Amino acid sequence: MLILRIKKGNYRNLSLSINNEGDIIIKSPIFLNDEQINKFYLSKEKWIKKHIEFFKKQINLKKQYDFSNTIYLYNSKFKNLEYNEKKINIYLDNFNKKIIPLVNEVSNIIGLHAKTINPIKSKRIWGSLNKKKEMKLNILISILPKNLVVYIIVHELCHLIEFNHSKKFWTLIKKYLPNYKEDKMLLGEYSFILRDSSIL
């Protein structure tokens, strides 16, 4: 059920956001009245509808996973938890056996190579690449469908040429992944994985 929350405080301007539960949050300066806030809300209806639809898709996707009883691995494979091995060790093992070889495979295809590939635990990002050409990939990348893993890898490798998210960067991505926009949008729907503390 959609919930609209209005917070008044020492804010300079009106702002609108949607939290992880899909609730709409409007922050308003104290001096603005209900009519002004409502006018602002109505002006953002198109943006709101777009993001509410996104959250509906994310909720439906999340229902397909049960992280409390199951470990999901690369390429949609999973194992039931019938042993005492720590979850993180299982994901690390899969990272070394499946993800690193895939990075090397993609690197060879597009001709871009990172110096190192290391797993990280993060609730914010799927991957990063610094100016030392060190690639870091979230250990939970193993849960994603293969096409999204490839998208993340290509995304990070392209930072070897364009260390930003400029138009040139996205043109480079498109060179290797013509349908990257679909992968980018779908990856956003999987962002609930990053925030789920029951996985590890």
What does the secondary structure layout of this molecule look like, with pairings?
Elements lengths: L3 E6 L5 E4 L5 E6 L4 H10 L1 H18 L7 E4 L3 E4 L6 H24 L5 E5 L6 E3 L4 E5 L7 H13 L8 H10 L3 H10 L2 H4 L5
Parallel strand pairs: 1-3, 6-8
Antiparallel strand pairs: 2-3, 4-5, 7-8
Helix pairs in contact: 3-4
CATH superfamily of the largest domain: Metalloproteases ("zincins"), catalytic domain
Rg calc: 20 Å
Helix content: 40-55%
CATH overall fold name of the largest domain = Zincin-like
Average pLDDT confidence is 90
Shape summary: globular
How many domains, in number, for the residues? 2
Let me know the largest β-sheet.
Answer: 3 strands, mixed
Q: Extract low-pLDDT stretches.
A: none
Tell me the structural class.
alpha/beta
Q: If you had to describe this structure to a student in words, what would you say it looks like?
A:
With 200 residues, this protein is of the alpha/beta class. It has two domains: 59 residues, no CATH class; 126 residues, Zincin-like. 44% of the residues lie in helices and 18% in strands. The strands form three sheets. A three-stranded mixed β-sheet has the order 1-3-2, with helices on one face. Strand 7 and strand 8 form a beta hairpin. The chain is globular, with a radius of gyration of 20 Å. It starts with a strand and ends in a 5-residue tail after the last helix. The model has no long low-confidence stretch (mean pLDDT 90).
